[in-house]
Amino acid sequence: MTAPWFMFATGIENSYPTIKNGTVRVDEMDKCGHYKHWRRDFELLQELDIRYLRYGPPIHRVWLGQNRYDWSFPDETFGVLKSLDVVPIVDLCHFGVPDWISNFQNPDFPALFAQYASAFARRFPWVQLYTPVNEMFICATFSAAYGWWNEQLSNDKAFVTALKHIVKANVLAMAAILDVRPDAIFIQSESSEYFHADEPDAIKNAEVSNARRFLSLDLNYGRRVDSEMYEFLVDNGMTREEYHFFLQNHLRQHCIMGNDYYVTNEHRVAPDGRTWAAGEIFGYAEITRQYYDRYRLPVMHTETNLAQGPNGDEAEIWLRKEWANVLRVRNSGVPIVGFTWYSLTDQVDWDTALREENGRVNPLGLYDLDRNIRPVGTAYQQLIQRWRRVLPTQSVCLTVPVVRPSQFGTTQSDHQQAEARDLRQGTSATQTMADHGG
């Protein structure tokens, strides 16, 4: 029943934020041709022997209103994934919401999103792995601090409002999914960041940014935030009751921490607070260690890529470098359970963080948009073949209890779910007693 302890994955990019004051939807599945070529995209997984896929339905096409859904496209696509025995890591909200929700300032979003998550889980009960809301910190930052997407606001109060709604939506969705699939596992893809002071006068700003980068996961995992961050949250609209919701409703025991890392994830900070890309200084291994030391959860490298440049081997070199970092993390004693090249195909307008519609193809995928394999695709295929048989021998104890689609409904699968349900009920009862001083 349990999978080999390492999950080699890719993803099909399904971002869909709005820009231009909500009038334009940036739908990467459309831009990258997935709606037209989705069957071919799934065939590519078979060619690479990739069995885990970060993937999700386009929320703006499926979720038409409260308790109103159009499941036609997910029924087709997830039906084929199930027949191929591909394990999806289902991304339910990726940087945007349906027009009728408006944006992440809407206080009704968390409860409504939990209903959507529950409806999906009931529709596809064989799905076990989820990322309810992708990159919560980045979503709140780009939407409500930088003013690039969705509400396009740029102030601290808007950021805190977006953040608390997004993380609450994630927590409520986890609970709703667990009510349907008690052995669900949540792989919380989140950007792993670090801020380097560019000079002594910038140290304070860098320290604040390095505390702020943890906010989404602190709230999601029920960890008390640092005192300065607590004041920041309260000063910008989070109530004591809202804060205590996160302390009382964490579900970290069901979670794998997903750490995304790109060459743009490290930043230089100026004395006036300005930031710009620093390039790779610490690298994935060091920054992941910082996150692991804080949360003590199993880890998965859930996103990385680099553009294929003029030499043709730039992405391939980056793949080898990231894989070396994954091995370093593992060898240092951190339980790391997976790696992801993101994404399967090239992307469009990724270079402007989807805030401009230039139609520029970014050569970041394992395949180009004509579905021809890139050198990094061949390199990843070889990496998987070479390491898949080696890694499980490193620890026969460290396994992830993944139920493959073909195993769903078997006696062993039903037993695992029953045990998970009993454990969840026992945990809830213990928590209730603790809340009441029992």
Automatic annotation (TrEMBL):
<dbReference type="InterPro" id="IPR017853">
    <property type="entry name" value="GH"/>
</dbReference>
<dbReference type="InterPro" id="IPR001360">
    <property type="entry name" value="Glyco_hydro_1"/>
</dbReference>
<feature type="region of interest" description="Disordered">
    <location>
        <begin position="408"/>
        <end position="438"/>
    </location>
</feature>
<dbReference type="GO" id="GO:0005975">
    <property type="term" value="P:carbohydrate metabolic process"/>
</dbReference>
<dbReference type="GO" id="GO:0004553">
    <property type="term" value="F:hydrolase activity, hydrolyzing O-glycosyl compounds"/>
</dbReference>
<dbReference type="Pfam" id="PF00232">
    <property type="entry name" value="Glyco_hydro_1"/>
</dbReference>
<protein>
    <submittedName>
        <fullName>Glycoside hydrolase family 1</fullName>
    </submittedName>
</protein>
<keyword id="KW-0378">Hydrolase</keyword>
<dbReference type="InterPro" id="IPR051923">
    <property type="entry name" value="Glycosyl_Hydrolase_39"/>
</dbReference>
<feature type="compositionally biased region" description="Polar residues">
    <location>
        <begin position="425"/>
        <end position="438"/>
    </location>
</feature>
